[in-house]
C-alpha cells in the first residue's frame, strides 16, 4: 500500500516522536500537531497506516502506536493532479508527491495522477484511484495511456489506425475519442493503480 504525502507526514511525526521520547504520541497530540478538526481524522490515518503494515497499534494503550520495523522499499514520485477517465479535463500540475512501492516501478521516470470520472470502470479503474504512470511518448495498440488531446489530458486505451488515433473508454455507455495522428500526444503508460478505502 502506498502513502500519500499527508499519510507519510503522520507516519514520520509518530516515528520521530517515538525516537525522541521513547514512547508514542497520543491521538490528541497528533490531532493538535496537524490541526485536524477531529480525532476521527487521526483514527482514519492510524487505521490506514496499521492496515498497510506501517504501524502497530495496541488498542489497549493510549500511547500504543509503534512504527513497524519492517517497511517495504518505497520511492517518492510526483503527484501531478487529476486526469479524466471520461471527458478530457486539464491535468493540474502541482508539487505533491506520493510514496509508491518500488515493485510497482520499473526503469524510467514515473508520476502519479488522480483519476476522475467513470469511463474506465470496466477495467477496474475508478474515480478517486491514483494512476501510476511511466513517462513515455510511444505506445502499442491496446495499451492504456495518458493522452493529451487539444491541451486536455485523459486516460484511455490506445489504438493507432491508418490515418487516425482512437482512444477507447472501458464503459459501454461512452464512445471512443477519434482524432488525427498529430492531434494526440502520448504522455505516459499506465503501470499501476493505488486505491484507498
Can you walk me through this structure?
The radius of gyration is 20 Å and the shape is elongated. The strands form 2 sheets. Strands 1-5-4-6-7-12-8-9-10-11 form a 10-stranded mixed sheet. Strands 2-3 form a two-stranded antiparallel sheet. The chain has helices at residues 5-21, 27-34, 39-51, and strands spanning 3-4, 55-57, 65-67, 74-84, 96-101, 110-116, 130-134, 144-149, 152-160, 164-168, 177-180, 184-194. Helix 2 packs across helix 3. The termini are close together. Helices cover 19% and strands 37% of the residues. The model has no long low-confidence stretch (mean pLDDT 86). With 197 residues, it is an alpha+beta fold.
The helix-and-strand class reads alpha+beta
What is the overall shape? elongated
Q: Tell how many strands the DSSP assignment holds.
A: 12
Question: What percentage of residues falls in helices of 4 or more residues?
Answer: 10-25%
| Beta-strand percentage range | 35-45%
Strand/helix succession? EHHHEEEEEEEEEEE
- The Cα radius of gyration reads 20 Å
By DSSP (H or I, 4+ residues per run), the number of helices equals 3
